[in-house]
Design goal:
- The chain is mostly helical.
- Helices cover about 65% and strands about 0% of the residues.
- The protein is built from ten helices and no strands.
Length: about 240
């Protein structure tokens, strides 16, 4: 089912002629370093394919196969709307409705419901939204989505450090690193606070799952940190 769903959505064509395989992430995100380091590396299809693998690899020993599959379905469909709206990650809390506007015609009915719940979870975790999603899996899916973005960003920053090379470090890259570490730590703390606030409302142990995923993220980013330090760049501790 998962492979078929990926194939189905990759056949869709947006109003500007984009497909998931040709639409690159973060290219219209204002005031961001991402366009400089992402293009042309990370298409939406690459992002979705990684998330499918990571969900099973990071949570396969903690959660039953049925839940893993449901998480994968949420993550496959969650950003199909970018074929219409571009980079929805730039939207503020007041723009939540735009994330789903026009997307109903693209998504299968069950996936449209999954998207609505995912958007609610994202708003609750990141924008102080008061409404909770129906399913706790929407929280987990958003956390996975964020960790994948952080992981891939640091992979590209590490690669960029190698490309710059030389005896002198690149001030622009150092600034990107400082911003990235600041963002990662800020969002991790926000997720911990918001999950602690809502965890008792669900049977699933969201606190333990978040802790496990953040531990995985820490291990991944510290590997990049060792390389960046060896290249002469300043890094920050992941908290």
């Amino acid at each position: 089912m998962i492979k078929d769903r990926l194939t189905y959505y990759n056949k869709l064509v947006g109003p500007r002629g984009d497909r998931l395989a040709t639409l690159y992430r973060f290219q219209v995100k204002p005031n961001s370093d991402y366009p400089r380091i992402y293009l042309p590396f990370d298409s939406l299809l690459n992002h979705k394919s990684r998330l499918v693998r990571e969900t099973k690899r990071w949570l396969g020993d903690l959660l039953p196969a049925s839940i893993i599959e449901e998480l994968q379905l949420i993550l496959i469909s969650h950003d199909v709307g970018e074929l219409i709206h571009g980079d929805v990650s730039r939207l503020s809390a007041s723009d939540d409705t735009e994330e789903t506007t026009g997307v109903e015609d693209l998504l299968l009915p069950d996936d449209y419901l999954r998207l609505g719940d995912f958007v609610t979870a994202q708003s609750f975790l990141e924008n102080g939204g008061e409404k909770s999603p129906e399913s706790p899996l929407s929280f987990i899916a958003r956390i996975l989505d964020t960790i994948d973005g952080n992981y891939f960003a640091f992979a590209l920053l590490e690669n960029y450090a190698f490309k710059v090379g030389g005896e002198e470090t690149d001030p622009a890259l150092q600034l990107m690193l400082d911003r990235s570490y600041s963002y990662v730590n800020k969002i991790r703390e926000k997720y911990r606070q918001r999950i602690a606030h809502i965890a008792s409302s669900f049977d699933l142990d969201l606190v333990s799952i978040l802790r496990h995923l953040q531990t995985t993220e820490t291990e991944l980013l510290r590997k990049f940190g060792k390389t960046l330090t060896a290249e002469g760049y300043r890094i920050s501790e992941i908290i």
